[in-house]
Design brief:
The protein has four helices and 15 strands. The chain has 180 residues and is mainly β.
Length: 180
């Protein structure tokens, strides 16, 4: 196990005693491991910005009267990537999160990847992201970039650097403690 201490710009290799202290002081989050790439993925709850209220006389107002309450916010398993700055989400989630690619708060670009291939991406902000079952591990107005991905998403440093993060991969856990 190892810890990324962003506040002090250190990587700490943990022994059993120091790991026990990290676990006692932090919040544990289940992670899934990918054997082929040694990738840790964590579950996030994604919440879009509050939508405009429906027009009472329109179809949206009519359909909302049949709603049984607010649906659960969407979730995604996102890969933890310390080399990435923002939250990346697969572009298929734009529809789920009600992000309009042509909206005024969305910026569309066509950058080039490390292989020289161009791709389309859309940048915006989400209302909030939080770790599933750990609502204190949250970020309001998270910057998000949507693009075609093989995974559901990638969690980057904009979220991670606010914490001291311990990677306990043998136990499929990440431990988050508030950064100093």
């Amino acid at each position: 196990p190892f810890t990324l201490d962003y506040a002090n710009q250190k990587v700490v290799l943990e022994d059993s005693d120091s790991l026990a202290k990290r676990k006692a002081a932090g919040l544990k989050v289940e992670c899934r491991l990918s054997d082929e790439n040694v990738v840790a993925s964590v579950p996030l709850t994604l919440q879009e910005r509050a939508p405009d209220p429906p027009n009472p006389g329109g179809i949206a107002g009519f359909l909302s009267s049949f709603s049984g309450g607010a649906p659960d916010p969407p979730r995604a398993w996102v890969q933890v990537n310390t080399g990435c700055e923002n939250l990346l989400l697969d572009s298929k989630l734009m529809f789920t999160l009600k992000v309009d690619a042509t909206g005024t708060n969305v910026t569309e670009t066509e950058p080039t990847d490390q292989n020289g291939l161009r791709y389309r991406s859309w940048a915006s902000h989400l209302g909030k992201i939080e770790m599933v079952d750990n609502p204190t591990l949250t970020q309001e107005k998270a910057t998000v970039v949507f693009r075609k991905l093989l995974a559901e998403g990638v969690l980057g440093q904009e979220f991670l650097r606010r914490y001291t993060v311990t990677f306990d991969l043998p136990n499929s856990e990440l431990i988050f403690a508030k950064g100093q």
